[in-house]
Write a structure and sequence with these properties.
Elements (H helix, E strand, L loop, with lengths): L7 E4 L3 E6 L2 E6 L3 E4 L6 E5 L8 E10 L3 E10 L2 E10 L12 E4 L6 E5 L3
Antiparallel strand pairs: 1-4, 2-3, 2-10, 4-5, 5-9, 6-7, 7-8, 8-9
Length: 119
């Protein structure tokens, strides 16, 4: 791995909530956060904590030598669609194996990816 590309996956101590068009797309106390400097941290929510009926598989696929192949989803809520706004690694690389069964959301394509205190 090139220098400066240290990748760490850690449990998020907060509740992570994803919103689109007033709908809660995902909400979890079991989210994982991917730290991959210099990128901003990315929150991954277990698929069980996502409103799966709001996700539609996309044809877009990405590839990272460290994380593996990313399959994308469009998210639709209340008549609004955010294309390729979510992704998952179906077979994540060894460094990020904990991300299997989790999905991330692009904060620039959904209305919010929030970290809330657990109450």
């Amino acid at each position: 791995m090139p220098e400066g590309r240290d990748i760490v996956v850690a449990p998020n101590p907060k509740r992570v909530r994803v919103l689109l068009a007033g709908a809660i797309v995902a909400e979890s106390d079991r989210a994982l956060t991917l730290f991959e400097p210099p990128r901003a941290p990315t929150h991954f929510v277990p698929l069980d904590d996502v409103a799966g009926e709001l996700l539609e598989p996309s044809t877009h696929v990405g590839r990272c030598p460290h994380k593996g192949e990313a399959r994308y989803f469009s998210v639709t809520a209340h008549g609004r669609t955010a294309r390729d706004a979510a992704w998952t690694f179906s077979e994540p690389g060894k460094t990020v194996a904990a991300l299997a069964g989790h999905v991330a959301f692009d904060p620039l394509k959904v209305d919010a990816v929030e970290e809330l205190s657990r109450e």
